[in-house]
């Protein structure tokens, strides 16, 4: 059983057992693992052992997980509209915003531990 604050475990279980919609076994396994590791703490090999034949490499899983965690962090303050653009410069994700990004979004990005992606903010 999982408590309320283990939402990623609940979501992982639901996507693994209920996601159909014509997805392949590989796609279902990938989506469920990304949901499980969406907090950006890195993919744990022990969790994926059972599904490893269906999944891409650990490096790919960590990068995809980091991208999902980054998007979640950038939207931490639930903005009314998405007022930023992303680009990749010299291996670093540059977040260009129309105005100063929210404190919560900046702190959420900083809090990503084990993140494979380096992020910088820039005012547009």
Describe what this molecule looks like in 3D.
The protein has 124 residues and is of the alpha+beta class. The chain has five helices and three strands, in the order H-H-H-H-E-E-H-E. Strands 1-2-3 form a three-stranded mixed beta sheet, with no helix packed on it. A hairpin with a 2-residue loop joins strand 1 and strand 2 (92-97). Helix 1 (7-18) packs antiparallel against helix 2, helix 2 (25-36) packs across helix 4 (58-74) and helix 4 packs antiparallel against helix 5. The radius of gyration is 16 Å and the shape is elongated. The N and C termini lie far apart (46 Å).
Low-confidence stretches: none
Total count of strands = 3
Largest sheet strand order: 1-2-3
The share of residues in extended strands comes to 5-15%
The number of helices is 5
One letter per element, helices H and strands E, the order comes to HHHHEEHE
Question: Overall 3D geometry?
Answer: elongated
Radius of gyration: 16 Å
Average pLDDT metric: 78
End-to-end CA span = 46 Å
The helicity comes to 40-55%
Question: Structural class given helices, strands, pairing?
Answer: alpha+beta
Sheet with the most strands, sense and barrel status: 3 strands, mixed
What keywords describe this structure?
124 residues, alpha+beta, 3-stranded mixed β-sheet
Secondary structure layout:
Layout: H1 7-18, H2 25-36, H3 45-48, H4 58-74, E1 84-89, E2 92-97, H5 103-110, E3 118-123
Parallel strand pairs: 2-3
Antiparallel strand pairs: 1-2
